[in-house]
Amino acid sequence: MRRLVILLVGILTASNVFSRCTAIGAEEEPAAVSYQHDILPILRMHCQGCHQPARAEGSFVVTSAAALQEAGDSGEAGVVPGDPSASYLLEMITPIEGEAEMPQGKPPLAAAEVALFARWIEQGAQDDSPAHSGPQIDAEHPPVYDLPPVVTALDFSPDGKMLAVSGYYEILLHRVPTENGENAAGEQIEARLVGLSERIESLAFSPDGTHLAATGGLPGRMGEVQVWNVADRELALSHPVTYDTVYGASWTEDGTRIAFGCSDNTVRIIEANTGKQVLYQGAHEDWVLDTTFAKGDGHLVSVSRDRSMKLIEVPTQRYVDNITSITPGALKGGLVAVDRHPREDFVAVAGADGVPKIYRIFRLANKQRKIGDDFNLIKAFAAMPGRLYDARYSPDGTRLAVVSSFDRTGEARLYDVESGEKLWSHAHPEGGLFAVAFHPQGHLVAVSGFDGEVLLLDADSGIILHRFFSVPLPGDQVASR
């Protein structure tokens, strides 16, 4: 009986949606529904978070038109071409009295979206995906590399035993070489976490190290926040958001929420275990590229291509202030990275002008905002060549590591925070450097970028202690390094 009700609902909904077609002429057929352009975007935004190879709830995957025709734990085919009444997927997404089985725990799909599924199935569930969309990539079929990919993100686990490195459709967990030579380069890949995001833009371990957050997505199609259970190597959460890649993941101190920036100019916070959105702020005027929480998690700091660093009050979702100068044209380029001092409410920022800076997060009570000031600025360090892409404090907050890219070369520098003195620099002629991370014990600095090679530098001298490619490569490529 439920299937009969659902079929009638689907037919009536589809009739309403496509009434404009029949109004033109009784003989005119409704336009064909495209899997690639109509169905797939709905699946990406509402369904793939729970039904993908890395997290196949109900043993059902919705990442391809062919997979939709398979049966999950229900034993019934998700889609039966030409027969909406026999298609279990349509039953699950069709609301009855305002409630639908899927998406689970979320509002039902819009009536027009359900109608598209019904019409697509009725028309034969044709797959019009591009003939060649690349090799299958999942945990059983991880990416195969001829050359190392550009590395855009690095993060050490809180215990210092692992280094997370961004790859293509994956995150690679490397064992960190020890001082006595254990875990030598070339034998250090602990796990490969393969998901839906083609690009990984940021990585951040939770404060207790049990989970790893990643932001990224499919450029121009979908943004995604991933949360991985580190011990089990399982995807705990896949949260699709917006229609482009997302950036700058940061955790609250208690590890319950994750902030990130979006290319729709918004800053958002979600619950780490459910994906429920708890903050949405649109004060920026361009892509938001990084975030960090102030002490106590009551305020959030975000940086953007709009050349500003903004302060947001988390409980009220209220935009409070520009931390950086409010003088038009005072800043010479977009801001890319921000990191909070481990003990103080100070933040280090890096951006297109090549000058690392440190700002206090909160304006002093006796200093009012006015055009022309840059009162929150504490220190500006010596300029580096080109654009800055990342900056990270040492665990004790006494040093600042920064990386840059200029004219197909890179540079890493370490500054003394108190004096502003440059302690050392590492020139990298093989390509720009885009990511940096400090080991939690403070003795190593990891850097990587365009050439896909990870360098572990001695934090006291800048000397290379270990070097290895971010991904597994053919033997001849490794030997040619």
Regions with little confidence, pLDDT below 50 for 5+ residues? 4-26
> How does the major sheet shape up?
4 strands, antiparallel
Number of helical elements: 7
Which strands sit side by side, in order, in the main sheet? 3-4-5-6
Oligomer class: single chain
Q: Estimate the global geometry from the Cα principal axes.
A: globular
**Strand coverage percent:** 35-45%
For the terminal residues, how far apart are their CA atoms? Answer: 66 Å
Q: What class do helices, strands and sheet pairing give?
A: mainly beta
Question: Overall mean pLDDT score?
Answer: 88
Work out the helicity level. Answer: 10-25%
Strands, total number:
30
Radius of gyration, rounded? 25 Å
Explain this structure:
With 481 residues, the protein is mainly β. 13% of the residues lie in helices and 36% in strands. The protein is built from seven helices and 30 strands. The strands form eight sheets. Strands 3-4-5-6 form a four-stranded antiparallel sheet, with no helix packed on it. Helix 1 packs across helix 6 (111-122) and helix 3 crosses helix 6. The longest helix is centred in the first third of the chain and has 16 residues, at 2-17.
Task: Give the gist of this structure.
The protein has 481 residues and is mainly beta. The chain is 13% helix and 36% strand.
